[in-house]
Structures are given as structure tokens and as C-alpha cells.
Amino acid sequence: MRNLCLYLTLMGAASGQVRFEDILKGPGENWLTYAGDYQGQRHSALKQITVDNAGSLTPQWVHHIAKANGLRTCPIVYDGVMYITNSNELRALDARTGRLIWQYKEGRSKKQDVNRGAAILGDRVFFVTSDIYLVALDRRTGAVLWQKKYGSTEDGLYASAAPLVLKDKVLVGVSGGDTGMRGYVTAISPSTGEELWRTYTIPAKGEPGSETWGKYVDYGGGATWLSGTYDPALNVVYWTTGNPWPDFYGGDRGGDNLYSCSLLALDADTGKKKWHFQFTPHDTHDWDAQAWPVLVDLPYKGSPQKLVLHANRNGFFYVLNRVTGEFLNATRLVDKLDWASGIDAKGRPILIPGKDPTPEGTRACPGVRGATNWMSPSFNPSTGLLYVVTLEQCDLYTSSAKEPEPKKNFSGGGAGPKPSEVGQFFLRAYDPKTGERKWEYPMTGPGESWAGTVSTAGGVVFFGDDDGQLVALDARNGKHLWHFQMGEGLTASPMTYAVDGKQYVAIASATAIFSFGLFEPVRPVALPKIKIE
Amino acid sequence: MRFCVALCLAAAWPVAAQHEKEGEKPKHPFIGDAKAIEAGRTLFGGGCAACHGAEGQGGRGPNLRERVMWHPLEDDTLFSAIQKGIPGGGMPAANLPEDQAWQVVAFVRSLTSPAYENPVAGDVKIGQELFWGKAGCSGCHQIQGRGGKLGPDLTNIGATRAAPQLREAIVDPDADGAPNYRGATVVLKSGKTLRGVARNRTNYSLQLQDADGNLHLLSMAEVSELTLTKGSPMPKDFAQRLGKPEIDNLVAYLSRQSLRPPEPKKKKEESK
Which of residues 126-185 of B touch A (CB under 8 A)? Predict the structure, then answer.
């Protein structure tokens, strides 16, 4: 049986072209986008690992990356090969053994920053360097085909997001929103590296929306440091934007500061904005909207609807119509939330006065890390629940009216919890139809996690906890099934894949990739007969 | 001969990176300067080659390429070793005029810095014709997506290897032990035979890549026999088949292979 599987794998290797249609199918054996699918649901069809057997998961291999600095990568798997990224580096691993097949390292990059992962299409894998090149590699040999510079570090930018591959485009974003820059999403041709369109998140002076800024509109921020999601039927890309700049001082930027802290719906062919929804107008708490926009089709208030769900850093859980951008509902994501008493019928927060940062410090909730952040949520269509890692925390926010210096790492203040008030993480399951919290699972830990979740058809939801453990829960009720201590903090989200009919669950720790599967005794391997010629 | 992944990983980026990263102190203007390097080569030939070899490959004195590679000397340290010698170590003081000493430093640096940062002796254009034609290199190597897939991609080779390394790779392919590229023939228990290079392997698994670039990720439990080449599967007779000028031309062509073009030299020091 294993022989047959192996043979099939070999056949697969010979044919291999990752087609757009393969990505549309969603995750099973393969996991082809950062979020596994285009919808951001992170729900896999695999069901070898179930609620009943998850207790016998064991580590299958570990791939250590010496000197890695808090890996943010979510692996991509195609045809038994896993692609992971580190700063300015992409590695191809044998997904069954964790052995290195090849690595590509860009030693000339002017920056060394975190990297969130790769993208795959045809015979190519893509990733971005910290100094803002999109790199295309042959997915089998690692040969480099081209690099395309799509931004400059001299403009206060760097790059960290996993690219998003569409049928004939690779979409990339930029980071650096805390230093005074102007965010954008760029589409690049996967075959030639040619730039196809670019959409700025902050209007240029004189453009509509620029009236919502004061003098620093040129450096308004709105970074695009997380991948987006995509609706192939509507041909619309959903991409979130970061904070306005300077982060904590709003005195020189009176107005809503469009389109910071927003969700943008972009026409995939042209990059033109179809609609936008701003979660936090005139943000002064550094609440980037970088949380995954999850696309689901659900009956909502009596009729089937195309929805986008967004658990936002500002503490609210939003439901929008993803065709029109119409605001439908917002509920409290967390208990510690005191800057707004609610969201009005138009989707604007109802502010509670006195919560802006001040030179002496203002206590406000959620904290600067947000009620949630870029850690991946997941949605299980069978339970109908959205699984979100949330943080209950309040911070002391300070501000400084010092003259801002663009591109110089000036954020106009700062924020952090009192040592006696360090927050607590929870994994929570929400019913998107009502916003109701169905169950929650409290974590222990220092309040520093960046790890997210993955959901499986086996009825198990996996997440990285705040104490360096990968944990499996029953997706229906949050009951604990299994856990494994990985020995260091987690800054990435888990995913799942299969090779030769065996299901694996993988996650990056700060310096290594771990892969788990159901226990099977190791069969003895006779020493190979090797001839040297 | 076992091959060792830790070593291969280190070897993947062996050239002491010479780029000005943010916050690095500026280099002496002679470093990477064609005229200075040529002048340094002449001085080196006269005063150093007798002990260190014409290309710094070592002799009575140590190999300057390896040493600098594994534990890079600062330019200033190199300068003072040249000027003051190494007392008690058999290395005499050169006591050159300051400019000449810096020319020698520039030459020694060029032995280990990325080939594209330095001037080359051969003809790039002729090297290109050889590579894609008569010499048959493109049958096994890719540059920017064109060419054969058995051997390593050379798209960036001018940025990741120094010129003496490029020369050595052509005339003595076994010198580096060919980590990740030993030729491999695998007979599977199913009777099937696969050929290619072993990108990695243990007693339990083999990551084979064939000449079409396809990967075969095998469990050694499926393998009945594995035959590995002793060293590199690259032809070993280029030194005989090609003349020195032709090899110079190939090195010149390879030295220009860099996806990111060399950044223009900043002239801040000189213009003042």
C-alpha cells in the first residue's frame, strides 16, 4: 500500500504545476496559500486526526533554523514539499521527514526583518525580502528566476507579508507603518515580474479622502503588512490597512485619516477600490486593522448572504456584506473594552471621552497588542463557529507632541501594560450570526503570543498558546484533547497537510518548524547498500 | 565520504559580504577599485606570492582565501599585518608607502569578496558564448530560468562567490566535495531506476532531484541500491579541454551574474 502511494507521489512529482483551480479547491493534502484557501477560513478537509484519536499525536520531525528571529512563517505544502520562510530566506523541506531540499538566501538585503511566508503558482514559489523585492524561484530546484523591487527602504518601508497569488497576479504589501510612510498594495505578473497595478492606502494630497488628514498625509501610514483574502466569484481582493502616523499622537492629523485602520475591497484586475470600511477612524491606539478578513456565505437575518467577518484589534467583532461593504453588525470581542460604548448603526464607534493617549498616560482597553491581531482565526463550516485568539488586556497609552520626523521610527508616544496588569489570552469560538461567544479556553503565559489557529474536518481545532504549546481542542465545545510543549514562544499559526495518506499538523516555533502526526511505530530500515563510483 | 548538512549550509554563503549594510562604517576607497586592485596584484606578485601563492592559495604562508573566509579579517587588521608583519610568525613587515599597502589590501580582499564587485581579466562576451555553446555548461546550469537543471543555479553566482572560487569550481569540481549535488543512481525495490543528484540524504530518506528538475522524495526503505559519484558529477576535464584564456572568459562571464546589479559606489570620501 505504501509502495503504491509512493509511486503515485512520484507520478505527481513529474506532472506538477500548481494551477489556480488547485488553490480554489481549498486545503486538503496540499496547503497552497498562507491561510490555506482564498477565504481565510483555514479549514482543512483532512480528517485522519479526529476528536477520538488526537490524543496520540506525536512529533514526526523538527527542522531547526539556527539564529532565526521569531519565525512568523505559515508553511505552504505542495506535493510533499514544504516551503517556509525566514528573514530574506526561503527553504524547501521534505514534508515527510523535515530534511532540507534546498534553500535560497538573499544575503544582500539591506534589512533583516521577519517574514510571514511564501506563495505558490505554476512551477514557482514567491516570497519577499525585507528590503522589498518579490523573488520568484523554481519550486523544485530553488533556481532564482527573477527579483522585482517594488519599494524602497529609503521611503521608510520594508516587507514582511506572504504574497497572495491570484490566477495571473502576485499581490504584495509593505510594512513600516510606525515610522511615517505611505502604504500600498501592488500586483506583479508571476511570469515576468512586471508591475501591473498599485493602489495606495492613503490618498495623495488633493485626492478624495486627503481632507481627512492634517499636515502629514504624505506619511500617513496605512501599511499593508498582512496578506489579503479573495473572492474569486466577485473577483475582489480584501486587504486590511494599518495605523495612521504618528501612531499615538493625533493632534496634527484631525479627521478620520482615511483609509487607515480599514478594510479595502479592491478589484483584482485593476486594483481600483470598490468600497472601504474603516473600523477605527482617527486611531490613536495603534490598532492596525491587520486581522484576517474571513469570507463566509451564511444565512444572515433570514437570507443567504456573502459576508466578511473581522475580529478587530480595537475589541469589536464586525460582520459586513462583502459585496457592498454595508455594515451589518458589531459585537464585543473581549470583555476589557472601554474606549467605545458600542458601534452605531453606520458602523462608527461610539466614543467614551478621555481615552486618548496623554503625556502622563491614559489607561485604555484593549491594549496596544489589540483584542486580537494578525494571528490567524479559522472558521469551521460544520460547527458554524469562528475560532479567534483574543487577549484581555489594558495598557497605559502615552503621547508626545514632539515634531514628528518621518521615516525615523517616531511613533508619537508609546503603550504597554502595567506589570501588575499583564493580559491573558483566550481561544474563543464565536457564532458569526449573532456575535455570541459559544465557548472559551483560557491560556497561561506571559501575554506575548502571536500564534493563531487551524480548523479541520476531523472536528479538531489546533492553536498555539501563550506558553509555547500547540494545543488541540474539540471544535464543538472547546474540550482539551492534546497538547505539546515546544520549548519556546510561538509567533506563527499552525496548518495541516498530508503526504502518502498521513495527516500532519505543522507550526513554526521561534526557531524551528515542528510537524506532528498520529503515532505509528517506526519500522526498522536496513542500512542502505551504497556504492561509490 | 559522508556529507554534512551543517557544512553545506555554511557553505551556501561563503563569501564575506562586502556590501554596506545600514550602519556599517565606510570602506577605504581602494576596496573594489579596479586600478588599485591591479596595482595590488603586481605588488602582491612581487612581495607576497612567494610565500602565499599567486592567488593567495597558500604555500609557506597560509592560504589567505580560506582564513579570511571563515574568520574575516578587518581591512584595518589586514593593513597592519602587511605593514608590521607578524612578529615571531615568519611573516616579514612590508613597510610599504600607505597607498601601496592599501592597494595590496584591495587585492587580498578581491580574492574573497563577491566576484561581481571586482574587475576581471577575461572577456565577458566570449565567456557567455562559451557557456551557452561549446563548453556545454548550460546543459547542466540555469541562469535566470534558462538552461539545464541538474547542477546549481548560477543566476547569482557572481554575487555569492569570489573569482578564485569560480575558477576552482570549473577546473577542480571536486574541491568543494560537491555537497548537495553528488550524482546518484537509485534502484527502487519496485525495480524502477531513478537518476539525478542527491540534494540531501540520511540512512532513512533521500531527496533526489533529476536532470529535469523533478524531485523524488524517497524513503530509504523503498531503495534497494544507491550509487553515488565520488565527488561532483560535473566533468573534471575542463582544465584540459579549455585553455586558460577560455577559462578566464568563463570566470569573467560568471562573475557578472548577479540579479541585483552592483550598487553604484558612493563617492563621499573622494569628492571632499
Answer: 142, 144-145, 149, 153, 155-156, 159-160, 180
In a domain, A169, yes or no: yes
Architecture of domain B124-173+236-255: Orthogonal Bundle (1.10)
Identify whether the C-beta of residue A127 lies closer than 8 Å to the C-beta of residue A72.
no
Amino acid at A131: D
Residue A156, helix vs strand vs coil:
coil
Instruction: Give residue B260's pLDDT band: very low, low, confident or very high (50, 70, 90).
Output: confident
* Closest residue in A to B6 (Cα–Cα): A66
% pLDDT > 90, chain B: 63
Out of B12, B160, B202, the one facing A103 most closely (by C-beta) is B12
| pLDDT tens, residue by residue, A396-413 | 999 998 888 888 778 889
Residue of B22, B217, B226 to mutate for A, most A C-beta atoms under 10 A: B217
Whether pLDDT at A6 is above 80:
no
Mean pLDDT of A189-207: 97
With CA atoms as reference, the chain B residue closest to A143 would be B153
Dihedral angle at the C-alpha atoms of B19, B23, B25, B31, nearest 10 degrees?
10
Name the minimum distance, in Å, from the CA of B153 to any CA of chain A. Answer: 5
Match 577575461 to its residue by C-alpha cell.
B122
Q: Whose CA is closest to B157, among B184, B183, B120?
A: B120
Q: Which chain B residue's Cα is nearest to A526? A: B221
In the CATH scheme, what is the code of domain B182-228?
2.30.30.100
Superfamily grouping for domain B9-113 = Cytochrome c-like domain (1.10.760.10)
Does the annotation count A500 as an active-site position? no
* Residue from A82, A86, A63, A60 nearest A73 by CA: A86
Q: Of all residues in chain A, what percent carry a pLDDT higher than 70?
A: 97
Name the CA dihedral angle for A490, A496, A497, A500, rounded to a multiple of 10 degrees.
100
Please report, rounded to a whole number, the percentage of residues in chain A having pLDDT higher than 90.
Answer: 91
Q: Does A1 touch chain B (CB under 8 A)?
A: no
A224 in Cβ contact with A174 (< 8 Å): yes
Inter-residue contact A370 to A313 (CB < 8 Å): yes
Instruction: Read off φ and ψ for residue A504, nearest 5 degrees.
Output: -125, 150
Alpha helices in B12-116 (DSSP H): 34-47, 49-52, 64-70, 75-84, 98-110
Quick check: ipTM above 0.90?
yes
